[in-house]
Every structure is written in structure tokens, then in C-alpha cells.
Amino acid sequence: MAVFKEMLYGGDYNPEQWPKEIWLEDMQIFNDAKMNSATINVFAWALLQPDESTYDFTMLDDIVEMLVENNYQIVMGTSTAALPAWMSHRYPDVNRTDFYGIPHKFGHRHNACPNSPTFRKYSARLANKIAERYGHLENLVCWHISNEYSGECYCDNCAKAFRIWLKKKYDTIEAINQAWNTNFWSHTFYSLEEIVPPNYLGDGIPNGKASFAGLSLDYSRFNSQSIMQNFIDEREAIREFDPKTPVTANLMGAYKPLNYFEFAKEMDIVSWDAYPSFDTPFSYSSMMHDLMRGLKDGQSFMLMEQTPNQQNWQPFNSLKRPGQMRQMSYHAVAHGADTVQFFQLRQSVGAGEKFHSAVIGHVGNKETRVLREVTQLGNELQKLGGALLDARTPAKIGLIFDWDNYWALEYAIGPNVELKYVDQIHHYYKEIYKRNIPIDLIAIDSDFSQYDVILAPCLYLLNDKTAQKIENYTKDGGIFVTSTMSGLVDENDNIHLGGYPGPLKEVAGIWVEEFDAMPMSKKIPVHFTDTMGHGTLLCDIIHLEGAQAIATYGEGEFYQGMPVITSHSYGKGQAYYVGTMLDDQGMETLFNQILEATTLTSLYLPEGIEVTERCNDNGRFKFILNHLGKEQQLSIDIVGQDLLTDENVSNDLTVAPYGVKIIKLA
Amino acid sequence: MAVFKEMLYGGDYNPEQWPKEIWLEDMQIFNDAKMNSATINVFAWALLQPDESTYDFTMLDDIVEMLVENNYQIVMGTSTAALPAWMSHRYPDVNRTDFYGIPHKFGHRHNACPNSPTFRKYSARLANKIAERYGHLENLVCWHISNEYSGECYCDNCAKAFRIWLKKKYDTIEAINQAWNTNFWSHTFYSLEEIVPPNYLGDGIPNGKASFAGLSLDYSRFNSQSIMQNFIDEREAIREFDPKTPVTANLMGAYKPLNYFEFAKEMDIVSWDAYPSFDTPFSYSSMMHDLMRGLKDGQSFMLMEQTPNQQNWQPFNSLKRPGQMRQMSYHAVAHGADTVQFFQLRQSVGAGEKFHSAVIGHVGNKETRVLREVTQLGNELQKLGGALLDARTPAKIGLIFDWDNYWALEYAIGPNVELKYVDQIHHYYKEIYKRNIPIDLIAIDSDFSQYDVILAPCLYLLNDKTAQKIENYTKDGGIFVTSTMSGLVDENDNIHLGGYPGPLKEVAGIWVEEFDAMPMSKKIPVHFTDTMGHGTLLCDIIHLEGAQAIATYGEGEFYQGMPVITSHSYGKGQAYYVGTMLDDQGMETLFNQILEATTLTSLYLPEGIEVTERCNDNGRFKFILNHLGKEQQLSIDIVGQDLLTDENVSNDLTVAPYGVKIIKLA
Amino acid sequence: MAVFKEMLYGGDYNPEQWPKEIWLEDMQIFNDAKMNSATINVFAWALLQPDESTYDFTMLDDIVEMLVENNYQIVMGTSTAALPAWMSHRYPDVNRTDFYGIPHKFGHRHNACPNSPTFRKYSARLANKIAERYGHLENLVCWHISNEYSGECYCDNCAKAFRIWLKKKYDTIEAINQAWNTNFWSHTFYSLEEIVPPNYLGDGIPNGKASFAGLSLDYSRFNSQSIMQNFIDEREAIREFDPKTPVTANLMGAYKPLNYFEFAKEMDIVSWDAYPSFDTPFSYSSMMHDLMRGLKDGQSFMLMEQTPNQQNWQPFNSLKRPGQMRQMSYHAVAHGADTVQFFQLRQSVGAGEKFHSAVIGHVGNKETRVLREVTQLGNELQKLGGALLDARTPAKIGLIFDWDNYWALEYAIGPNVELKYVDQIHHYYKEIYKRNIPIDLIAIDSDFSQYDVILAPCLYLLNDKTAQKIENYTKDGGIFVTSTMSGLVDENDNIHLGGYPGPLKEVAGIWVEEFDAMPMSKKIPVHFTDTMGHGTLLCDIIHLEGAQAIATYGEGEFYQGMPVITSHSYGKGQAYYVGTMLDDQGMETLFNQILEATTLTSLYLPEGIEVTERCNDNGRFKFILNHLGKEQQLSIDIVGQDLLTDENVSNDLTVAPYGVKIIKLA
């Protein structure tokens, strides 16, 4: 399913902040830059609805009319990500209560309590009104509901809704007590009314830990689903008048509070906002794109927001270097984006984001570096047309990313404060990244059978069904790789008794008796057959129960000589267990061995060069990306034509600073 | 106008904390130390007024009587800086609500809500009663209202008062919406009632930033003026009985929440409390004195508080070294003080400041180093008599310090968290300081015409009127120096559209297209014609539009070779723009060039030696100050007589450790 | 008085978290490990009492029955350390209000307001019911009331109770005003109702300081006594049915909020929970054991909790190395423990401590390292039998540890933020520790006469009675050692006027005029007759008034050449004053000199080796402890028999890694 007919190129446009005479100037600039789309109406609720019963679409009509006249594809926002002040004032239930139990009054955005009856009524009604008015438009290509859904609420309405959620999930109070192991610290509940949200006034802890992880985990699920319900409310209200146009909400990478795999099921297409910092590793940016692509099983996504130049909310908002914005745009495309959009098209004159860059800066209609680069990109994208649309990434390695694990691992008190979920996932990702092998970030409930290798580091929380799936996958010939802190708890955060790694013991062929914890600054030698690396953070003490040790601890601790990495032949497959956090050398040795059994080939390229692949009915495309501001030479086995330059390419390449090649393979 | 007849020498005296028999002992010590003044009644509200209707001046009468008998000049406090407990208890509206929305109960000091009707009533009434009783006294030389006004309140009374303030300032809600650009994030207000104070429950951010800087800026102005109104309330209550005695409130240097330039207009004389830490740069202390002198356009100020020896509330409260207290006292005089006063004359026996040193320490009437040094200083000051009173500093360089800019620059989200207003001002100050050239800290609405050079670094917020004044000043032959982050926003914190630096573009003859941001730890080479320095923090990308580049970026970034410092001949004057934060070498090169066109001469002296000048009808006085605890030699072009030793001085000087010379020029 | 007949070996057992079929498996494991005791019913309130009027002991009956059948000694908890949810829900007065004035809802443990009438009623009633049911049991050896009493509450009930407490202590409001020096900052109170708890809404400061230390100090006393009253409530309720069985509450070393010396007077035996971190100095662990022994004047204590292996709530929860748990157990015994108990016997399946290790881990009934080590220890303890019970430590050095000083010193604002009470006590402790000389941690109201040397560093708060006792002690031949920051304030935190160190001036024979403060990173040379060391943190400027200087300041500051350490012959004794924080070299020189006059002999042993002594009617026992994981040789003057191996020992010893010898002297 190709969602769009051509690649969307444009971005957030907020003409309601400007006098109307400016609009025409803007359109001229966008047209010159070969833009073909605009996202509008993202933050305009207070303008559209000045009170409970009045709706005023005059200005939005004008904006739409102008865009239609200019043949723009429209991504239509619903404007519900920031409450109108009158609503906060008259209906305080719409305001959030924070982790410290403090009810807020009116400020910022993403400020609505997801379980506020008032908010749910008026947000859905607004979406409905907008759909009624604009849903029929031919230019409408996508609905953009709310904006960057985020945050938590702990108000009394949420508490009530949480109790209803619990009743539905567990039916009895006894089941809740068992799920949360409330006999610990005598927390036994006799009635739902006794249960309070796990914030600072309850069982939450300001550092992100939880006294009752089962409770906090359920609240995280509840909060994520509450916010997702806000999305569904609006989507359904839209569907009353527009049954077909794709619906999205713009996501934020590895944003913790929202289970995006669950959320993405409710969307037609995933979109996201890519805001790397000046020191974000390239591999991390790639991983985020891959995660977004993974949310809907490899379907193309929208790069809904990126900044044309510097951001404003980082500690140090460096400029994007000449060519870097273009390169980062293609970086997204290389990982699955079918759109290249900016936040924002025109820079705001005042308030919190006035130093966030835009296609049209504060200088207005004047020749700028940003405009030149945007225009170059626009011309290129126009040339590319729909060639790359809906292309897929042919990955044979799947890396599990799971929000339940994200939450549960980080709620756990112990064993090591430096253990962070996304860091651990990225640690494995970057080992594959540096080999330039395609990789998918996948949900825990994905179909594993399409992958040669499944990576599941820190698979801390694991239910029996998934454990069974892993066993079957491995038995059937899959390569399964897991690590320390895996198989520890069930879906309620209760330990799988009988020895670690719980339901993975059999497939891994080991028993982990203990795990030592240490600061990252401390390293333990890890000996492979011929080489060595180091481990840190955690050191599992492993007993072989069928597996073989492929590396053992070196000197320094009492577990010297004991297995640290194991390999187990299981059915037709192989299961690896990595009992520590390996350094780069160790990871390289390990994955050389793991990948040996596959047909996957590592491609080592100069630092800063990345190669990806996408395929569709038009052919196979290789993306060569230079993340660095210096020209690089590479010798690589590729023959084809560069879509950007029409040059034929074969093997020896020179890649310009921040250069990009999109080679259609011959 | 000479406010005092002789230099005040004394300090805060709190005999109400002591049994009366101690008082005579105290007086004897003060007399021996040649003190001639005492500040009394600073914290005694609860003693003076035990309930709503009772006032009891018995003890204050006794204290005043004793001071009069001993011919002391009296600085009379009004005692309103700390609420009586009974008032906090019976009238909770007097208590403040903090940034987090938490209403306080009773504690500390500076604890009154400035908009509390109860507080306003009783504070003015108390001042009135005290004026009625003591306003006629001949010994009374100054009113000292409240103490170290400070803090903010966010209670409902303040919210109401803020809405009235807004109504008065803007008249219509539409004007407010425009001023704050509320179309951003759909913050449009339809009624004043919807506006809430910008604290944590609203649009404030705990790190000091603001989602709506226009709103937060207005609240800062409102809060500052609310507290200033408390001062005016009391001043007016005093004036009913005492129309003439000068009125002051003791200030605190670059204290952020109060706009001291505005505040000083309401005072007859500025006074301040100088509490440098053991590692405060000498240039910073000098700058604070100069700022205090600048508050009333160069008029002498009072050094209301300094500590005779160690402080107590710093992390490390080092002793003042032998001679250092004396040297610091003269340091204040050298920069414009007409009084030398201490906090405190007798050290308290208990509570939060019991380890803050005093003229009479816990040991009581015993020979101590502090007493010896105080006595030496007292004798010297007696000898000096009124010679230095009301002397002015003959500065030809003005450095703009502006609270609107202080607030607005630091509310801004982006571009660089390490950008701090006072640091930037001090960065320019110290370049002049090390040349021993007199400099004034001036208000943005000052008369620029008296200065050869106006320095305006980080003149972020700039209204059209000031911009016009700058143009005129430069056109008429002035030298105007500004920097990156200047001319960006108007008085509402909305961007001056059309290119940076907004209304300074023409006078500076440049257009700034972009500014790169980086941590302080990163340096970019800056090439002048013959020398080089480095820049950091921000790097402006500058296009010349009439100006000349006097320095360009060195290698490392894509803006290599582009202008970083520019000079523009404008009318008869010259405008400089400094597009980065220069290191010391760069500053030296730059200012060598800037000052070349003036008659100002740099005087480089050994590290720790400072020279200042003051002039009055008695003559011209040069102060030679040694900030270090070692003897120093200097060769300097001065001929005259040292007022402290009566020695004739000519050119070659030996300055003792922490030594001071006050040379009346021949 | 020997409290137990044999050493208790066992720990916290929470079978209520497990299905009953597990219990028999557990008992088998405990029996195999030679355990003889179990602590039960520590967190079961919600199970025991499902509502106001129902009590259900069915499960506890079963647990007790099983333990009795297996001849276990029972330590019976009262289960009141965690509120039942129904009580928090129905009676919100049971919940605490925190330092920020935030009332909590339901969560964690140690969550009851100590002054809640509801909590006091139901906690005592529960203890009473349990005593009624189990108080007669022969197997019952100890009552374990609540658990790890801790925290503070600032609710309105506490405010009211505080006012009653104040009325009882001071009688008049005038006395309160005087005690707290409320004339400072005009805090004068006219009625008790005006006094509010000194939290963030009052005179408290988030960094732990206080504007009115007298008030905060009284609140600390009040809070400590309120919690102690909860203990007394339950103890008295127990005594109704069980007049004899010893009663304890498990303490936590140098836990700041509770005055353990006061608390211990209400207990029959002290017990505590030892949880060193991986980098806790050995000397610090020793000091904590000695403090616990000191709480009841040298009486043996219970090691109520230690972890069999890793903890979970440290940042890095390292494993205990093989042999280390055993060594740490004996370390406690070596310092006075008569029991070796674990938290916990079975690891919980879920919630906040699921990664805290246990005798029976998540793996269940399987051979583990922990079980092997526990079993070895069990066999050894069985062999030791009652040989060591009730042995005393023959210390002739007493080191004062005083909670009033702990609180008051740290409430003080100034002179140095790096000054921490426990650090300073430990600084002196470790100098004695490294000499392997027995030392007692003693209360300020102890009988000093049994000691040759009394160490009293930072004896900041000192009433006249104690000062008199110190004078008498010294006069009668004692050696008294005190330091900077001593003798400064009275019991109300008001300064002893007339010169520092207040009432210690005479015995010390000095007057301290001033004290300089500096960061730890700055060092000042200290010259003894032949050697030198360095001082830091504070440097007192001392005038000799009868004392002799035994060390003077070296160069660098103006007090160079002045005395820094003094010695004063006073009566038959000697008083030392140490005017700075000495480094290790300085401490060694100083204590060589101090101890010269005693019969105490320093025994320097290799790093990580510690020797202690205990004596009872069975003989004298020397403990040789190796804190390191490497074998060590030592030559030492000991002849006797190792109780653990029955080997005869004379002088030359090899101590295994983490090895222990308990030598009964011949």
C-alpha cells in the first residue's frame, strides 16, 4: 500500500500567527522551493473555538483555500495538543496533575488530562467539526491528530479511570493483589477505592523507580492507553465524515511514556519528529528511524518534523552545517521515510520556540543559506518523484524493542543504576549498524520467522507465550541472542521462579545463579578463544546446562574462568546468551561468530559512511550517506545509477562532505 | 547635593536582642572605634507591634535616647522585612505562595506577599507611626525602609493585582494577545480571568526559562513594581511626618528580581550590601559598586552592609585577612560610597546568622583583631572627614545594564544555556577594569551624550526609541559597541523582523543571518589583522552591509573567513559589532582599536592593583588599592598627597599588602 | 544479663508471601543450614487486620506452629511499619505530610504519622492482640516492634502535638522565645498557635539547614520522641500479656532523625541492620557496630539484618565475594553481636526488594553458593554455641556520639558546608581503629570515669552540666580531646558567650578568637616538634591561656606560627584541643603523643586486617578479621585456641582471604 502518490515535501505552516499579506509572500517562497505540501492547524484550538458553543473557521478556510489554489497537499492538524485558556479556566478537570500531585492551572502545551470528560468531549467534537468541513477536500492527504502526544496525569479523574481499567483487566481485587505481590510491605488492597496512582504521593519514586513495579507498570500501560484513547476519540470523530484519508500522530522516537507499538496499530501511517542533538551518535539516529519504520512492520513512515537549521531547546543549538540538513533528510528516506517535512516553514515572532529555525526565518523574504538548501532539496525530491515510495528494507535481523520492558526494567530497584533500556538496545544496534547490515526494530509480538537472527538484549519482562515463541523460533532454525537481565519477570513484573533466565533457561541451555553489578568505569576481562574484550555493568555467573561457553571471565573476580557468553544448539537453531555488557571489541568478536552461520555479509566502511537499502516494485536502491563534513573515498561493490545525478556508479565512489547517493542497482 | 555632612561610619545595631546592661558596654566600644552612626530597628516588627492595635516603642525609645546622648547619627529602619508571627497566623494573605504554587506558613524573612492588603496596610502604618515618633529627631540622617527587598509571590492576590496591572498597561485583551504572541501554542486569551501567573503551574519553567517570555517578562516587571510599591507605601507614610530626611532601601548588586534602576528613582540615595565570596573576582566587586553608583546617575551611595570579618552563608566562609576589611571598605569609597557601614555591630547569640561576624563578637568586650582593625579605620575616616563626600567618578565609558534585558535574555529558550546576562556584562567590564579606565554602569534610558563610548553587549531587548537614541548617539560622534544576541526582540520579547540585529542593523552596517552555538569548552579562532584570539559560546554569521570586518573566523567551521567583528563608520561616530564571546586576547586587541579613537588612556598595573578616581569641589582624588595580601611596587604618573598618611606622593609607589592610598592630586 | 541462651542464627522470614506448600521446603533448607531462629510477622498488618474490627491470625498461627514444631526460636514482629491501605484510605490522618508540606496518600512503608490518633490506637491494639495470642510461647525469644523506624512528619496533628510538647518543655511562650532567640528576624511568638513546624513552609531549608536552629532542633527532638512513643505504645501493649520477653526495634547505624541513645533506653536489647556499600570503609562498618554496642553501654546487640549476598537499593549492588558474608557476620560478632541474622530468608517474587538477595533465592531449592556459605556459617555458629554470649569489649577510649550535636551542627548555617558530623566522628574513630585499640562509642551522658581517654570532636552543643562533667573527668586524671567547632552553643543552640570554646575554655586553657573556613581541597601545613601534617576545612586562631602549643600553623596564611593543637595540664589530667581537621599524618603524630600517657598499645597490622577483643565469664577472645580477598600473614602476640578450627595459635598467623579467627586466649 503506497500511502502517498509522491513524496511529501513541506512542513508545519502556521499562518494564523501572521497578517494575511504575508501569506502570499510565503507561498511564493514555498513554490520556489518546490514544496508540495503543508501541515496546518496544529495549534489553533483557541482561535477555532472561542467558547463552548462557537466555532469559527474563517481563517482556516482562507488558509485552505490558498493552499488548494497552489495545489498543495494538505496535512490537516486537529489542534488539540494545547488547551484553550478559557477551557482550563472554566473546566479545571481538563488540567493535568503532575507526579508530585500538583494540579496545574494553564500553561505550555500537552496539558490536557487524557481522562478529563470535558477534554474528551471537546477534542473529539473539534476533530469532528474539522472533518465535516474539510474531510472532503481532494488536497487532503493526511490527518495529523494532536501533536507529540506526551506526559502523564495523576488527577482524581485518572485515578477513577485507572480503577475501572483495573477492574476490566483483573476483575477481582485478589487478582490485583497477586499481580502486584501486595503481600510485600503489607500493601494488600480490599477494595479498588484504596488504590491510588503511583506518583510521589503513592508508590512512585522521583528518580523513576517504583516500590511496586507491577502497579507502576500497569499505570504506565493505563496512561499510555488513555492518551491513545484520545487519539482514537478524534480518529473516530473524523471517520464520521472522512472514511479514507490516512490518519497519523507525530511520534518522538524512543519516547518512554507511550507504547508506540500499541499506538501505531491505531494509525494508518506512522510519522515522527527527528531532533538529534549535535552529539547524537549517527547510529542512534538510524536506530530511531528504524524503530519508526518497525512500528508498522516495515511500512514507510513520514518524517513529519525536522529542523531546517538549528533547534532552540537543546543546551547548545548548533547550526546544521551546509549540506547537513539535506543529508539528514535523505538519512530518514534511507531508513524508510516517504516524506521530508520541516518544523517549521515560518519562524514564530515570539514565545518559546522563536529561536527554532524555519524555512523562512525572521529575516523574511531574503536569500538565505537555509532557503538555498531547502530549494536544492526540493528540486531533487521533485526529480525523484515517486520512485522510492513505499520501498521496504530487506532486513534479516530483528532487534526487539518493547515498551513493557522499557518501563519494567527501569522501574526495578537494582541491580545497577547505570542500566538503561534504550542504551542497551542501542548497544546491540550499533554493532549491526557498523557492519552496514539491514536491521529491523521489531515488536515483541512480531512474526519472528522472517528473520535469520533475533536480538533480544535485556528481555527482562517476558511472558510464557513469547518464551514459547522464542523456543519455537530457535527450534525451527533461528538464531536467538539475548543477554543479562533477560527472562527475569513475567508480565506483572513478578519473578519467573526456578532460576534465571526464567523461561529462557531451556533455550539458552544455562542457569544464571547470580549477577554482580559494578560502575561502567570498572571493566572485567572477557576471553574468547583467540581474542579478548571486556565486560562491565553486570557480570552474570552462569552454569552451563547444555550450552557451550564461547567466552569466559578473565582475572580479577572470583568468577574468573566461568562462562560469560554461551551458545546453545537448540533444535535447528542456536541460542546465545551474553552475560555482561561487552565492549566494542567483544561485540565484534561475538557477532563475527553469530553471523558466520548466516548469509549476511558485514560491510565495513570509513567512519561516518553508512549504506542502507530499500526495495520496491521500481527496483533496489542503495543509499550511500556521508555523515561527516569531509569528502570520503570508498570502494564498494555497487553497480547502478545515482538517482540524484543520473551518473552511473560502479564500485569506486567519492562521497562529498555530507554527501548522499541513491543508487538504483543495475 | 551632599546627602551627609560627614562620612557615616557604623552599622546595623540590634540591641533589642540583648539585655540593657550590655548596651553601655557596646556604646563604649563603638565610641572607641570612632563610629558616628548606627542603623537600628531593622528587624523588630513583632516587638513593636504585638497585635493589630498595640504599638510599643518603649525599648526603641531607650535605644534612640542612648544614641542621641552619644551623638550618633541614626539610620532608622522600618522593620517591615519580616512579618510578625501573629500576622502570618491570623491573616494568611500576608504569606507568599512560591514558584511551585505552595503557600508558605511562617518562616524566614522577606516573607510578605507584596500585594497582600493586610501587609500593605500594616507595613505603611508602622512606618507612619515610627516617623511620627522619631521623624523630628535631629540625629536622624536616613530612613532605611524594610531590608534587602527580594523574592517573588504567585498567590491569588498577586494574580488579581497582575490582571489589574495588565489592564492598565494594555487596556485590551487583544493587545495582550499580540504582545505575548499567544497565537503560538494557541494561548489566546478571551478574558483577563484566564491569565494565571507564570509559575510552575502556569507557563514558567523551573530552570528559569519561560514558554511565553512576554508573559513572564511582564510578571517580572509586575513583581518588581509590586515590591517597589511596598517601598513607596512606606516612604509616603514617612513623608507625612518627615518631609526631608533621605530615604533608602538596601540593595544587593545585580539582584535579578528587582529592577534597581526603576527602584532607585524612588529613593533619595542608593545603599547596598556588599558580600563578595572568597573567590569573587575583584573586577566583579568593582562592577557591583559601579552599578550601585550608576543607579542614580553617578550619585554617591551608601555601603550599608559589609561584614567586619567572615560571613556565614557562603559555602566556605573565609576570614577577611588582616587589612582586608579596611581595603574593601575603601574599595567601596573608591567607587562612590559616602558611608562605610557594617552588618553587624554585635553578633547575635542564636538563629540563622549567629556565625556572621560582627564588630563585637561573641567574646564581647575583649581585644580582638576585628576591633583593632575597625578602630584603625574609624580613626582614618574621622581624619578624612567630609573631604570625599559627594565626589563623582569622571567616566567617559558607559556600560549598559538593563533589567529588562537581564530577564528577557535568560527567559529565552535557546540558543545556548551557558549564556548568562551578568557574565556577559562583566566580560566587557573587566576589559575596561584591567585598563584602569573609569567606567559607568548605566541605565538604558540614560543620557548617552556624556560618554565617548557606550558598551552594550547582549542588548537583546531593544525598543525603537532606544534604537533611535543609539543611532543618534553614534551619528553625533559616539562610539557604540554591541555584540551577538543584540537587537533581537522588542519590549514584548517579540522578534524585530527583517533580519538580525533588528533595529541595530543600520547603525552596525551588517546583517546577521545565523548564529552557531557551542559549549564554552569549544573555541573558534578569531583573526585580527596582526593578532588572533578565540571566540566561544556563539558565532554569528555576519554579512557586511556597509561595515568593515576587523576580524574574521579562523579555520574549523564552515564560516571560516567570514566576519566576526565589524566596525562601521556611521555619521561622525563608529559602531562595533562583536559576533562571538571573545577570549581575553581578543578583547584586548579589539579594545585597543576601539579606544584608539578616544583620549582615554589604558593604565596597566600589576595584578591586584586597581586605580580609581573621584572628584568634588575639594579636588581630584586617586585611589590606589591593593587587592592582594602582598606588598607591590608601581610606577605611576601621580603627584599629590596621601590623605591617609599626609605623605607626599610622586610617581613611584610602594603599596602595602591590602594597602590603600587616597591621593589628592596636586 | 545474657539475653539469649545461644546465638540466634536465622533471619526475616515472610512465608505469608508464599503458598503453604513451599513452607516445608523452606524449613528443610533452614534446618540443613543449622538455623535456629526466624523473625516473622514484620510486614503483615493488612493480612492480620482486614478492617477496623476484624483480626485474622489463621496464617500466622500456622507459621508459628511450624516454627515451634521445628524448635525455632521466634523473633516476633508487630507488623506496624507499613499501614494497611484501607486505613490510609478511610483515615487520612494516618498518612504523613512531608517536608514540602505535601500530604501523602498511600505508598511505600514507614508511612504512618507518629502523632496520628488513629495510627496510635490501631498499632498498639495490634501489638496487644499479637502479644495476647503469642506472648506465652516458649519459643518466643524477642519482640521486634515495627521495622526500621524512620522519617519525619509535618502534618497538622504533629503541629498540635509539637505545641503540647513545647508547652510541657518550656511552660511559657517567653521561655520559647528566649530559647530560640526569636528577637532575631522578629520571630517573637505571642501564642503557641503561631508556631508552625520548621519544614519548607516554615523555617526549614531544603538543604538541611535551618533559619532557627533552636526551633528545628526542638522539632528533631520532638519527632524522634514521637516515633519513640510509637515504640513505647506497642511495648506497653505487649507487656500487658508478656512481661518478660526482651523487646527491640531494628536500628540503622548513624541514622540521623532518631536519637538512638534515647531510644535504646526504652529497649531491652539493641538490634540493627548492617548494609555497607561496596565502597564503605571497613573502619566505618566497625564504628557502626561499636555505636550499636554503645547504645546500651556495651551490652551485646543483635545483628538483625544483613544481606546474604547482594543488596538491591545501592547504586551498584555488588555481590558479596565468597567468604565475605561469613566474614562480615563475624565482624559484627567481633564488635558485640550476639546474633547473626539475615534479611531475608526467602527472596520475594515481586515489588521493590525482589533483587535483594536471600538465603533461598528465586531459584528455590537448589544448591547455590549462598546456601553453601550460610550452611558453613550455621555449622560454625552451632559449634560456638553460647561461648561468646554477652561478652564485653574492654575499651578504655570513649568517643562521644551525640544526636543533639549531629542535628545542631548540621542545622548551623556556616562556617563550612563540608563539615559533616558523622564524617568528623569517623575521622577520629579511624585513627584508633588503625591502631587496633578497643574503643567505645558513648553517649554524652555516659559515665566517663571508666575511660582513660575521652574523644569529643565537634562537641558543638554542650550544656553546663556536661561541661562540668568534662572538667571533673579531666581534673581527676582523664585525658580529654576535643576539636574545632566545640563548646560553641548551649542546648538551645545559643552561643556560649564570652569566647570560644565556651565552657571548654578553662579545661582547654585556650581562647579561640576566630575560625577560618576553606574547601577540603585546600591544605594548611601543621608543624609538630619534629614532624608535620596538614589541616583543612577549618583553622582556629587560638590564644593560649594556660595551654601549650604542640603544633603550629605553617606558612601560607596570616596565622602562620600560631597554635593549632594545644595541650593543657588540668588537675591530674590533660586536655587537648585540635584546631583544624588534621590529615592522617597529623592524626598519627597527635595520637602518638596523646596515648603515650596511657597504657594503651597500638597494634599496626597489614591493610585490611582488624583485631578486636571480647571478654565474658568464659574467657577472653581475640577476633582476627581479614577484610580483603587475599591471604595475609601476620606476626602478632597472641597465644590461644581458634574456636572455629580448634587449632592452637601462637603469634604467627596466616589468615585466609576474608578469613576469620576467634582465638580464646590461653
Automatic annotation (TrEMBL), chains A, B, C:
It catalyses: Hydrolysis of terminal non-reducing beta-D-galactose residues in beta-D-galactosides. Its EC number is 3.2.1.23. Zn(2+) binds at residues 113, 153, 155, 158. GO terms for molecular function: beta-galactosidase activity; metal ion binding. One of its GO terms (cellular component) is beta-galactosidase complex. Residues 395-600 form the Beta-galactosidase trimerisation domain. Belongs to the glycosyl hydrolase 42 family. This is Beta-galactosidase. It comes from Enterococcus alcedinis. The gene is lacZ.
